[in-house]
Amino acid sequence: MSYSNKYTFAALPRTQRGTPLVLGGDPKGRTFLYTNGNSVIIRDIENPAISDVYTEHSCQVNVAKYSPSGFYIASGDASGKVRIWDTVNKEHILKNEFQPIGGPIKDIAWSADNQRMVVVGEGRERFGHVFMSETGTSVGEISGQSKPINSVDFRPARPFRIVTASEDNTIAVFEGPPFKFKCTKQEHTRFAQAVRYSPDGSLFASAGFDGKIFLFDGVTSELKGEIGSPAHKGGVYGISWSPDGKQLLSCSGDKTCAIWDVATMERVTLFNMGNAVENQQVSCLWQGSHLLSVSLSGVINYLDVDNPDKPRQVLMGHNKPVTCLTLRPDRNAVYTASHDGCVTCWDVNTGEGSHITGQGHGNQVNGMRASKDGSLLTCGIDDTLRRAAPADEGGVPCYTDVAIPLGSQPRAMDHVIEDDTTIVATVKELAVIIGTSKQSSMPLNYEPTCVAIDPKSRHVAVGGADNKVHIYTLDIRTLTPSVELTHLGAVTDVKYSPDSQYLVACDANRKLILYSTDEYKPAHNKEWGFHTARVNCVAFSPDSKRVASGSLDTSVIIWNIDTPAKHTVIKNAHPQSQITGLAWLDDETVVSVGQDANTRIWNVPKA
C-alpha cells in the first residue's frame, strides 16, 4: 500500500520573551522562512497552507536564510553548526556543514554573489565568523565587540561591508574582503538588536532595545540621523526594508509595528497589534507586497496598510508540542491542543487554523472531545473540565465560563455524543459527568492512562500504568467492573471500533492487541509489534476495517483487520518527533499530530 502526505498544517515560530526572532525571505518573493525547535519551516506567502519542513538539525535551530540566488538555505543552530542545503529538491540535499562558532547562532547573512557568508551569535572564542560558503575558508575576522552579537548584515553591493549589532550596545563595521574591523557606532544606549542594509546598499539601519532606530551611510558608515524620536516606546525587535528602499518596517515590544519614510525619517503608518503581553511584536519582514510580523504568541500577522488596526490575515496554530487531537462530528474540522493550553480548530479543506478564545486551561490539555451541538469539551492539568460553545453555525467555539472541578489531575477523557455523557479518568478516580454536572465517581487503585466508551454496549475501557485494560459497564451514571486484560507494558491508548465489534489497545512494550468485544479475547493470533518504541496512540477508520497507530519511534503504521499480516509503515511521519495523536477523517485519510507542533494529513488508499 502506498501513502502520501496531503497537507502539513505547519507549526508557528517558537518565540521567547525578550528575544528577537529572525524571519527569512525568498529573493523571488514567493516564500518565507522561520524556525521552531529543530525544524526550519518554509511557507508559501500567498497560500500559507502550503508548507515544507526541514528537520535535519540535531538541536534547536535559531535562524535560516535564503542565499541571494534562492537555490540554497543556510540554517544555524544552538550548537554553532551551519547547514547549507538545497531548496530545489524535495529531499533538501545537504551541500555543506560548518561549525564557525562554538555556541548558539543568532543571525546569518550572505554576500550578494552567494560566495561568502557571515554568522554571529554567542561563541566561546568569538562572537562571529565570515567564511566562503563553498569551502568554509575564513575571509577575515569579526572582532571588536565584547558581548554576544544579535544581528548581522552584508552590504548587497561592492565595496562589500559587514555590520553587526551587539549586546554591548554597539554597532560594528567591517571592511573587506578579507574583512577587518573598521569602527564601532555607539548611538544605542541598550542592546543593539537588528541591523539591515537597504536593497541597493546605500544605507543601513540599526535598531535596539532603547526603542531607537538610526540610519547610516552604507559606504562610509556616517550617521545620517535618527528615525522618529524615539521610534517606539518599547524595544525594537526587528526592522525590514521595502523592496524600493524608500520605507522601513519596524516591530516593537510596545505591541506596535510602524512604517517609516526614509527620506523624511517620519512615521507613515502605525499598526496597533493589541494590548496583551502576547501582542508584543518580535519580528517583521517586508516581502514584495506583503508585510509580515510575528507576535510573542507565535501568530503571524499579514499587516494591512489600508486598515492598520486589523491584520489582513492571521496565521494561527501551535508553537509548542501538540498533546491531543479530536475531530468535529462532521469530520470537516480537526481540533488540536498543545501543552501550553492553546487549542486550534483547523479547517481540513483550506488548512486555515483559528484559536479557540475565552478562559481556557492556561496549561496542558490532556483530553478533548467534540459533542453533538458543535461544542468542544477539554480537560487540562488545572484539574477542570471546560466546555467551548460554538460561536455560530460552523464557527469556531469559544470557552464558556463553566469549569467543572475534577478534584485531581485528569489523564484522559471520552464522550458519548448521543446522551452527552463524559467519563474523565483522573489520577484518583473515574468521574461520570452528564451535561455540566458530575453524577458519580469511582475511586481507582491504579493510575489510569486512557479511556474509551462504546456507545452501543455501554462498555468503558480504561488503560492503566499497571499493564492492564480494565473493562467497566456503564449504567446511566454508575460504573461496574467486569473484565481485566493483561499486557506486557503500561497501556497507553484504547479505542473501540465504530461498529462496536473490536477494542484495540496499545502499550509501552511496542505492541498493539486487537480484542473482539463479545468475550474480550484476542481477535486474531497475529501480533502487531512492528513499532520499535512505545506506541502512544491508536485510531479506528470509520468503516472499522483499519487501525492507525503512532509511536515514540516517529512512525505511523496502518494495520488491516481482515488481513492482519499486512501493514503500511509511514516512516518518519513527524521526523525527530514522537506521534502524540491520530484520527481518521475518512476511510483513506489519517490526521497525525506530534511533538514538533505540526499537524499532518495523510492519504492512505486501500489496497
Automatic annotation (TrEMBL):
Protein's name in the database: Actin-interacting protein 1
Membership in a protein family: Belongs to the WD repeat AIP1 family.
Molecular function per GO: actin filament binding
InterPro entries assigned to the protein according to its UniProt record, in alphabetical order: Quinoprotein_ADH-like_sf, WD40/YVTN_repeat-like_dom_sf, WD40_PAC1, WD40_repeat_CS, WD40_rpt
Pfam annotation, one family: WD40
Primary location class: cytoplasm
Location of this chain's protein in the cell: Cytoplasm
GO cellular component, one term: cortical actin cytoskeleton
PANTHER family reported in the protein's UniProt record: WD REPEAT-CONTAINING PROTEIN 1, WD-REPEATCONTAINING PROTEIN WDR1
Tagged with keyword Repeat: yes
Organism annotation: Diatraea saccharalis (sugarcane borer)
Sequence ranges of the WD repeats: 54-95, 185-217, 229-270, 315-356, 531-569
Entry keyword annotation includes Cytoplasm: yes
This protein's UniProt keywords: Actin-binding, Cytoplasm, Repeat, WD repeat
